[in-house]
Amino acid sequence: MTINWMEFTPIESFAGGLLIGLAAALFILFHGRIMGVSGIVGGLLRSSKGDRSWRLSFLAGLILAPLITKFAGFAPAIRIEQSMIWLVVAGVLVGFGTSLGSGCTSGHGVCGIARLSPRSITATIIFMAFAMLTVWLMNKVQAGA
Amino acid sequence: MIKRVSEFLVGLIFGFGLLLSGMTDPAKVIGFLNVTGAWDPSLAFVMGGAVLLSFFAFRISRNWKSSLLGRVIILSDLKMIDIKLIIGSAIFGIGWGLSGFCPGPAIASLASGEIKSFIFVAAMLIGMGLETLSQRMRQVA
Predict the structure, then answer these.
(1) I need a surface site. Which of A115, B13, B77, B109 has the fewest CB within 10 A?
(2) SS3 of residue B38 by DSSP
(3) ipTM (interface predicted TM)
(4) Whole-prediction pTM
């Protein structure tokens, strides 16, 4: 293992993390809900009509955020190097897996860990480990090809 | 109305955080997951900052009967680590590793106009729909 110093952005990443934590904190304090994106989106597919408006308001903010930062002159890079077919495969896996496992990086990885939930801590260790393993495997395959 | 505005603002703050932290950049996320190669540890700082602040909020509100806006507090009280949690998290991890996208950042990247973000989010919704459908079928059977 070597550290990629060129890409390392501890200050921006920590500051961004604080904002994410602030959002999660405001959500539980003011709204009494877990800020878990897969659950909020998945609920749109399942829940009753009266349970939709809070989900849509939150998602509208999330979707509009990059437009506002862009307007303010901040448009961070979004480098998507995978081909379409891999993105489709990955997207289906992410959707299916977060629905089956009841959470993703925000719900389990941030809120669940902050609540010290054994389920979320387990989930986070598993999805991190499998994601790292997948990247390792992809690198192997690409190096061999 | 105040609730809707407040939820919208929380979504905005969350989006700003994702953008600033680097989470919306799949190549950077993969750089973090690439622990055996040239590793970029930045995203560990994201999690550190996020957990730090929210930890206190969950502590403070632990015994509350309702939220500051008077809403019922909805928290999962499940304790069981079941097979669904394990398999689901593993499947999610594989998808995350393949793409560098998890649900929040994928949605926050939609407005960048990158067509690949749309494709990913559409596929993700299909995956969620498939899982919801299979749950219903199991319940019927």
Answers:
(1) B77
(2) strand
(3) 0.95
(4) 0.95
